[in-house]
């Protein structure tokens, strides 16, 4: 399996190299040159298998021998043994045909653990084999950061630098990152927003001279391995509800678009998906693009679903690449236009996207209303991100005969302030985090300036 860039100008890479990198050298994102196809028999055979076994089977074609089967199977088994639920990502039936896919049973209580527990192990495996060290730089609006730190804190071969927007993540999110005092973990609170942090990480990939030759690796969903691992739970949930004999639909709280793009890939690999619903908070660029072809930036708004406070959505580029028939030049031109002024998609690609995708945007007031309403109807307390999905699923669903699976992307205790505003104070953190609010914290506050961040990384990295 080779991986090619969405901008068509960077060299193709194999799996090991694609995991050990970030952006492609032409500024694009890596995608597989061809997608594996799962036959109806293969999908049917996955139903009833453990999550780890489904994960092994779905990811094996992407790994393509870069790790021998026995070792990879063991890495995957270890990865999902860190989850607190036996089913890893249990399906919770809300009503006759609407399900929540609970993705928050990993160590840091958000869907990011599914991929980042694996990525940490893959990085250690490949770096140990090469006898190399690496620097990781990641940007977070709150959840990727803690999941990446948790996934890499024990990695012998990496130093990890996570940039979060100062005072714009929840207290639990911040403490989950800043209370990890391992010598290879560095938290930086940026005086800016997530987009500023992500732009600095991307700029660092574009010009790595500041690291004097040390390898720079991404943990954000620009790293292909993140998408690969997220594809698994779409397949697992689909086959559990009767695919491939029947279709399934998914609604995904979305921002950087890595999660729902993984669902799109699952559909391209043979899972019969009827609808993919994009749920956004008030930062609604994805919704505006799909619903009214308005691909333009607006000022970032701070919302009750802060992990989705993102304007420039990295992985949308991967979807555009597919919608434009894998034409790297068209993607370069479109994104160059978008970086300067409001843009629009061409008619044919937009029509292709609308065959599968629909979208809805949910403001803060509605998030609170949905948390209350869902609790009354189902007994569940949703986190504010999942609440956007719950409402979007109801609004966008085209038929009730197809099971609708809404992705529950975080545990409500991570967003205690928002959940309390909806009337549910005191949602408990799980036992392993019971003393989180008393733990010592360590982080540095820096201006949103590339040179300041790069100096910090250069001065603190250990190898
Ligand atoms: C809890 C939560 N829900 C939803 C999202 C959106 O996911 P994505 O960025 O993959 O679209 C994020 C982070 O991005 C998140 O942390
Ligand atoms: N919501 C994310 C933002 C980064 O997204 P990623 O999937 O590209 O890592 C976060 O919690 O940090």
The number of strands is 13
- Rounded to the nearest angstrom, the distance between the terminal CA atoms is 31 Å
Q: What CATH architecture of the domain at 85-107 and 225-421 do you see? A: 3-Layer(aba) Sandwich
Enumerate the distinct ligands. pyridoxal-5'-phosphate, the ligand N[C@@H](CCOP(=O)(O)O)C(=O)O
Organism: Cobetia marina
Keywords: Amino-acid biosynthesis, Lyase, Pyridoxal phosphate, Threonine biosynthesis
Domain Tryptophan synthase beta chain-like PALP: 98-328
Protein name: Threonine synthase
Could you characterize what this model shows?
The chain is an alpha/beta fold. It has a domain of 220 residues: Rossmann fold. 43% of the residues lie in helices and 14% in strands. It has 18 helices and 13 strands. A six-stranded mixed beta sheet has the order 3-4-12-9-10-11, with helices on both faces. Strand 3 and strand 4 form a beta hairpin. Helix 4 packs across helix 5, helix 9 crosses helix 10 and helix 15 crosses helix 16. The longest helix has 19 residues. It is globular, with a radius of gyration of 20 Å. The structure holds pyridoxal-5'-phosphate and ligand LJ64HWYM. The site of ligand LJ64HWYM has 13 residues, from helix 6. Pfam families: PALP, THR4_C, Thr_synth_N. GO terms for molecular function: threonine synthase activity.
Nutshell version of this structure?
By secondary structure, the protein is α/β, with parallel strands linked by helices.
């Amino acid at each position: 399996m080779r991986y090619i860039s969405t901008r068509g100008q960077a060299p193709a890479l194999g799996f090991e190299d694609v995991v050990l990198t970030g952006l492609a050298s032409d500024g694009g994102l890596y995608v597989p040159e061809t997608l594996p196809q799962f036959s109806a028999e293969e999908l049917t055979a996955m139903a009833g298998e453990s999550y780890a076994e489904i994960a092994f089977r779905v990811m094996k074609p992407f790994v393509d021998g870069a790790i021998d089967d026995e070792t990879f199977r063991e890495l995957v088994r270890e990865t999902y043994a860190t989850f607190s639920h036996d089913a890893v990502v249990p399906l919770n039936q809300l009503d006759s045909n609407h399900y929540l896919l609970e993705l928050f049973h990993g160590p840091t209580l958000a869907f990011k653990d599914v991929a980042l527990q694996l990525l940490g192990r893959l990085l250690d495996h490949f770096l140990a084999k090469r006898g190399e060290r690496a620097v990781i730089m990641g940007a977070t609006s709150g959840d990727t950061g803690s999941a990446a730190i948790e996934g890499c804190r024990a990695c012998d071969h990496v130093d990890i630098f996570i940039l979060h927007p100062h005072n714009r993540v929840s207290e639990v999110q911040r403490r989950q990152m800043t209370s990890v005092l391992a010598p290879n973990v560095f938290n930086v609170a940026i005086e800016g927003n997530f987009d500023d942090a992500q732009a600095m990480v991307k700029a660092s990939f574009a010009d790595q001279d500041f690291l004097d030759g040390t390898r720079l690796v991404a943990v954000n969903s620009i790293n292909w391995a993140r998408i690969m691992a997220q594809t698994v739970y779409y397949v697992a949930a689909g086959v559990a509800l009767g695919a491939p004999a029947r279709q399934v639909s998914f609604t995904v709280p979305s921002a950087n678009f890595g999660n729902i793009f993984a669902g799109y890939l699952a559909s391209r690999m043979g899972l019969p998906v009827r609808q993919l619903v994009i749920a956004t908070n008030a930062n609604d660029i994805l919704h505006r693009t799909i619903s009214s072809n308005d691909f333009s930036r607006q000022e970032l708004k701070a919302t009750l679903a802060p992990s989705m406070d993102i304007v420039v959505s990295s992985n949308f580029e991967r979807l555009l690449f597919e919608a434009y028939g894998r034409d790297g030049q068209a993607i370069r031109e479109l994104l160059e236009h978008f970086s300067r002024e409001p843009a629009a998609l061409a008619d044919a690609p937009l029509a292709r996207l609308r065959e599968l995708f629909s979208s809805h945007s949910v403001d803060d007031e509605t998030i609170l209303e949905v948390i209350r309403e869902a609790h009354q109807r189902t007994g569940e307390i949703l986190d504010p991100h999942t609440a956007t999905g719950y409402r979007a699923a109801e609004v966008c669903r085209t038929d009730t005969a197809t099971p609708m699976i809404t992705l529950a992307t975080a545990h409500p205790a991570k967003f205690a302030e928002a959940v309390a505003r909806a009337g549910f104070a005191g949602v408990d953190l799980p036992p392993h985090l019971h003393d989180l609010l008393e733990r010592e914290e360590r982080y540095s506050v820096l201006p949103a300036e590339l040179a300041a961040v790069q100096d910090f990384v250069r001065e603190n990295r250990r190898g």
